[in-house]
Amino acid sequence: MADIKQFKLPDIGEGLTEADILTWHVKVGDVVEHNQILVEVETAKAAVELPSPYAGVVTALHADEGATVDVGKPIISIDIAPGGDDGPRSDVGGATEDLVPSPPLSESDAASESAGQRRQSVLVGYGPAAEGVAHRRRRRTEAVTPSAHTAFNVPPAAPPAAEPQPSHVAPAHRVLAKPPVRKLAKSLGVDLTTLEPTGPNGTVSRDDVTQAAGATTSPGVAVGERETRIPIKGVRKHTAAAMVSSAFTAPHVTEFVTVDVSATMELRDRVAGRREFRDVKVSPLLFVAKAVILAAMKTPEINATWDEAAGEIVFKHYVNLGIAAATDRGLIVPNIKGADELSLLGLARAMSELTDTARAGKTSPADMAGGTITITNVGVFGVDTGTPILNPGEAGIVAFGAVRRMPWVLGTGADERIEPRWVTQLAVSFDHRLVDGQQGSRFLSDVAAVLTDPGLALL
To answer: Is residue 432 flagged as an active site residue?
Structure first.
């Protein structure tokens, strides 16, 4: 007798109300196992994979790829009667789901907790399955290590030893392509299964899709048409709503300063040559980040939050440093938890990991929650400066412009001379409800002072 269980779209965190179906990894009739990845969805903040809370046979998919589904609505039905695993469950976000024990906290997780951030509960499927339940070996385009970011920052279990794979576990041919490439293919009407992949590790690239469509236009522009309408959803929808809310809620003030950073650039060269830094990127942004952290600790108002509901100003005694990242999915702002407790080397490693995770499209909602102050590096685009909009809930954001070789006046009086120096421009936008002009100016001046003379960091 059939025993049909419906898996409902869970609230992955941060009060999300909907998600877009990116890719189904199963079809009707497939036999699935506990913890097997069923679908990849895109929320307003991140793309995440949802594992199965049951073992059984797929009887229905309730939403097509590209559809938007509300949290709490069924997305798949599974018949668990043929020996299905129906273990302990609990309601999460309106869905009936399995819960598994969280693994012990790592040192970085413990640091995050000490910085005021609690780990989220592990959702269905993550962690070890019931004893005796075999895991399907998942195809990957790259190796997964315990330090890699998964959808919920949980290290995946080691795959079992090689063994014959059941034919029902996965289709004989699965196209490997990132979500933005899949979206482009759908908008251009290109069947990914017909393409010869030329990307890394056998993945279909953006060029593969545009060449197949005979198009050289930007993503989303259909061949032979002068206009294309694309639904506003996912990260783009969330970013737009957040920026509008921020712009009309927090009274923004922006200040600017031009800085001689020649001493910082010399320090960067020396640090990059040290043995312990050889496996990480040592960029000027690293030193700007350190300067922002130090200045934020001296001006706590710039690192505070305005709690309208409680009628309180919340001072944070830690710095969760956000780094704005432009990705194929749109602008996201993951943050480094407890950045103020990290050494320069630890900060460099955390920034590298943050950047690599964002580029791979694996940034989780937890990585973007709880930020206290943000840096946006507009200099990588050759831009000198800008007037950045505050990340919602934060009181300050720093724009770091391009570092250029420019003429600079040195000395005074008879010793005055002009020399070529490394120069950049910084801008800070702050919430004038929390930060007065004097406090905002002092913060920006402190950042500039450390970059002008990095030795001041010792003071």
So the answer is: yes
